[in-house]
Amino acid sequence: MKLRELAERLGCRLEGDGDIEIARVSGIQDAKPGDLTFVANSKYESALADTHASAVLLREGALTAPCAVLRATDPYLAFARAVALFAPAWRPAPGVHAMAAVAAGAQLGTNVSIGAFVSIGAGASVGDNTVVFPNVTIGDGVRIGSDCVIHSNVAIRERVVIGHRVILQNGVVLGSDGYGFVRRSDGTHEKIPQVADVVIEDDVELGANTTVDRPAVGETRIRSGTKIDNLVQIAHGVTVGRNVLMAAQVGIAGSTDIEDAVVFGGQVGVGGHLTIGRGSVAVGQSGVTNSLPAGAIVAGYPAIDSHEWRRSSVLFKRLPELKRRIEELEARFAELSAQLDESGDDTE
To answer: What angle do CA 211, 177, 96 make, to 5 degrees?
Structure first.
């Protein structure tokens, strides 16, 4: 693709030769002639002088480069769209594989692709242009919207509702039983039937082996635009707001309400029955044990204001030294107190 055409399709301002042929997108340190690269972080600007790329995406007002430049308001967003332009456009052919099992009464939209060993239960529906890869189980009464991609080994339990343009990576489980038990008088546990709803709204992506549990009553809901990484646990009765981001290995306990635009770093744990305010951020490995107000930025366990946590963490490695100094001061204080007591006795 000529650089001029690429600039037009990305909505960028071109500086340099528009007839350059661009074959792929690459990182700035690996770029070769024919590549488009990008710099979105100022700490990488020093690498511009040595790049072998034919063109680079730069922010308006940023440094120049020894090659053609595409100026963008958001170079990283432009980079993501450039990758999509050069990505191979592949999808399975429409149709139902001969080794798929589709129950009588299940409804399939136009242009769907159903792979081998897919099981679709009674009363389920799959929307137009949706791709279901092999070894997926879709339970009775499940509703799946249009333009979804469901990768291999996904399990979608009965009556789960999925919106449009949803992506489920390999091994996702939707609608598994929530963890609910009541202790009997003899110390054993009785299971609480988990029979309520799970709803995944439009434009959600769930990473590999992520699980979303169904509750006994009410619903578990993930709202539109949310992106969740691999190995994340969403417990029963949780509500996740719009455009939330969760990195890998996050765990959310039951009945917690996560409002819009929240960000959780990797391995964040959130307690049950909490409210996490709009736009809050929990740094990786934080343990959130209390509700957070809108816009909070927390870190550590138990999670506190991230600035306070950083100041505190500086002191952690000095704790042995500080303990020794306190013990020395206590010993010295005791010694001085004893001397004062003896001096008072002499005066009498």
So the answer is: 65
In the prediction, which pLDDT does 347 show? Answer: 54
The dihedral of CA 221, 225, 226, 230: what is its sign? Answer: positive
pTM: 0.87
Catalytic pick among 151, 164, 189, 236 = 236
Residue 267 inside a domain? The answer is: yes
Q: Number of C-alpha atoms within 13 angstroms, CB side, residue 191? A: 7
277-290 pLDDT, tens per residue?
Answer: 999 999 999 999 99
Residues 84 and 225: their CA atoms lie apart, in Å, by 18
151 is catalytic: no
Residue type, 333: F
Burial of 28 (0-12, 13-18, 19+ CB in 10 A): buried
pLDDT in tens, 120-148: 999 999 999 999 999 999 999 999 999 99
Tens of pLDDT, residue by residue over 250-270, are: 999 999 999 999 999 999 999
CB-CB neighbours of 335 under 10 Å: 10
Q: Partners of 125 in the beta sheet? A: 107, 143
Cis omega (within 30 of 0) for bond into 302: yes
Q: Is residue 251 part of a domain?
A: yes
If one counts the domains in the chain, the total is 3
Domain range for residue 7?
3-86
Which DSSP string do the residues of 272-302 spell out, in sequence order?
SS-EE-TT-EE-TT-EE-S-B-TT-EEETTT
